[in-house]
Amino acid sequence: MPTQHNSPIYKGDAPKLDAGSVIILRQAGALILGKTTTTEFASTQGGPKTRNPHDPTRTPGGSSSGSAAAVGDFQAPIAIGSQTGGSTIRPGSFNGIYALKPTWNAISREGQKTYSLTLDTIGFFARCTDDLELMADLFGLEDDHTPAGGFEVKGARFAVVKTPAWPEAGPGTSSALETGARLLRSHGAEVEEVELPLGFDRAPEWYRSLLQGEARATFLPEYRLAKAKLSPFLVDHVENANGISRAAQVEAYDGIAALRPVIDGIARKYAAILTPSVVDEAPVGTESTGSPAFNSMWTALHTPVVNIPGFGGTNGMPVGLSLVAPRYHDRRLLAVSKAVGRIFESEGGWKRSL
């Protein structure tokens, strides 16, 4: 099957062996319908021609553009994607569907083209949490301790975390977060806004250092082989156009690593963290896939994240919210997401028209 990474460098490339994730699917009896398109090497630039099924003038998000659009458009019940910044959660929000970015490295990346070893994560798209749980079963996502029985919103505690990206939030996201918190309270949950401790304000900067520093090595082979066929955005990574020093990379590795147990400790106090999935509705056009501002910190922290649909923006396009749990609490997060999803989808104000 063609695996071209939306790059002319790999035009016509068709590996003989399946990627690890596809092997697992086939061995379980899954029917592989086909492959969908992505941005060039899963970057945020050079969006493919895939359109948003809810408004063809808008982007479906990316880099997992085709995966999310296919599920949102009922062409497939489930799709695989990946996330290095916000490439699973953001398209999930833009297409009005559920999306799971599991704990980092919980799913084999064998056979996937690398962008960033520290950030790349395989994830899933579906129109319901039952299908996400099916994929979690299939890929062996297990918590150390799984509570017996279902999760009840009534009596549960949720933390609202706006993140350092909050100044970028548009009206759709601001309204969704306010409404989401109100709905949880109306169903008997305790919801409190939590300010992240000192150090988390550096997370966006550290994320960029990690991403660009690792991409500098990742795309050196393509740069040496066919620089003219590589987008300027990726050429800049290899040429270190932003001047990221090795010292800055080390600081980023150590800084983010120190924050991970801190966010785990905060998240353990709650059923989940409620936080934005996107800046706002899907932007018009397909040249950009939108901003990963509200996703990249969680990607770097390696936490599991689920996008929950149910809200709409000023143009009637879907806007989702994210639930976040501590690392390797993916199953607990899915149980919480199922209960919260019922509320958000029925009372959030946005309904699927497809």
TrEMBL record:
Spell out the residue ranges making up region: Disordered: 39-68
Give all residue intervals belonging to the Amidase domain.
1-334
Its protein name is Putative amidase
Pfam families reported in the protein's UniProt record:
Amidase (PF01425)
Q: List, alphabetically, the InterPro entries matched.
A: Amidase (IPR000120), Amidase_dom (IPR023631), AS_sf (IPR036928)
GO molecular-function terms, A-Z: catalytic activity
At the highest ranks, the source species' classification is: Eukaryota, Fungi, Dikarya, Ascomycota, Pezizomycotina
Q: Which SUPFAM superfamilies match?
A: Amidase signature (AS) enzymes (SSF75304)
Organism whose genome encodes this protein: Rosellinia necatrix
